[in-house]
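Researcher: Last one for today. Full complex below.
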Amino acid sequence: MSLIHAEKLRIVLDGSTVLEEVSFSVAKGEIVGLVGPNGAGKTTALRAVTGALKPAGGRVEVFGKAPGEYSPRALARKLGYLPQATEIYWSITVERVVALGRTPFLMPWEDLSEADGKIIEDAMRATDTLHLKGRRIDHLAGGEKALVMIARLLAGEPEVLLADEPVQGLDPSHALRVMELLRGVAEYGRGVLVVLHDLALASRFCHRILLLDQGKIAASGRPEDVFSPQNLKNSYHIEARYGDGDGFYVVPWRRI
Amino acid sequence: MKAQGRELSSGLLYSVLGVLLCLAFFGSVSVGALKFSLFDALCHPSSELSFIFWDIRLPRAVLGLIVGATLGLAGAAMQGFLRNPLAEPGILGVTGGAALGAVAVFYTGLASAFPMVLPAGGILGAFVSVLLLYLFAGTLASVETLILAGVAINVIAFSGTSLMLNLVRDPYAVLDIIFWQMGSLADRSFQHVYLILPFVVTGWGLLLWDGRALEALSLGEETASSLGISLRALRARIVLGTALCVGASIAVCGSIGFVGLIVPHLLRPFVGYRPGKLLAASALGGAVLLLASDIAVRLIPSLVELKLGVVTSMVGAPFFLLLIFRMRRKML
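Model: Here's the assembly. Have a good evening.
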């Protein structure tokens, strides 16, 4: 069963069509990479799944229902969303940031229970951020902050995770750590839809790839099929080098 | 906002603020032109001292507590909602709007005919101001845009108030309005308390309800929304809650500024910079600060009693400038 299913999705923003006839799905246990050149409509597709954008045509479903059919809290319990470059406005501690992941489960007057505390601790342990729990979020380095944000996402125990460029600006070690975590979450029985610009990471970690170009699906399927020389030439105007010694991977090589 | 200081446990924080509030309240009912023992006033119910205690000092202290808590709470809520430490009902024009609404009620003579119209005028003025602020600046405005929007609303409110003062024929009425605008807790009775209490309590309820939503908003609107927070409902509660409690308070006490700026700023380190936990703490802190300021106006030697709004402005304005200076230095 598909956790997320989009059918002929069409999104219009300020009078211009950003997504046109886009269909995709995310199943339990898989990590799907959403790739494409800048302005292809990747973030728009994610935001349509969260219900922040209403389709002008087609439909998108989360567990068989349109996002708008859920109450905001009910949807938040099913769907975890990590936006591109999360803003942080106050100097709160890492532990409090991660605890915010429990928001959909708490009423305004409720405090965190012992069980919530355990989930928060587990999320920090999984992301190797437990030692940072008393630190102020704005005092952390970019890589540490990215892991804390993933911990916040995991603390909500969502069945589907949507992440918009979670490795942006990270060094290779932290980027690999984030991708290992997302893959691990998917293999644990959840669904992950992740926007990536790094084709090497996308080819290495994603079960399936959706290549978006100018608001349309240019290709979809296994990384080996989607990252074909022709597709990369058409969408990115690049040539790539391929490897399959220890699993398939692609490295952008030169512009055409 | 850089972290400084240390987060206190809720129990310790509220205990300290509670003790300070009790001391300030006790000080407020004890200090005045006439020195007497509270014991004497309470033990002789029909005496003049008893009258001074029950009908003059106690309503003044209760009103100080309510208005101070309102201004502290509204300041913390606006700062959390707009994610800006400079947001405050006075600077952003909400107090000015409420004052304009109340002056309009005075001007038309409705206040003396129908007392309930007075808080309604203040609430309406505050409501329009918050809406205008939101329309001018939105929620992601820079500090500069926000302050400019506040300046614009304050100018509009000031012009409207000036127009009404200009049109009033009775010079005594003009003086009354001018003095009222300076903000004071003097010469208020329990009638004023009863008049504003339903509005203020409803406003407090709406603002305190938003603690968790404001915490989620620390990570931006998109994340807060993905955590199940309805931004539309949050916005409605903040606008309505602020308008109800600030509007009603200003309607009976006049313009009292800067409490909502100073108190959340001072308490923020002790709540670990958490906008939700800051709400109740700022309400208590606001009550302490306003009661302490009201004691100060009675203790500062002068020919006539200083107005409370004048004292809070004299302390608050340099504080505001210092905050801007520190934020500017951080940006450089």
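Residues 123 and 247 of chain B are 4 Å apart (CA to CA). Chain B has one domain: 69-331.
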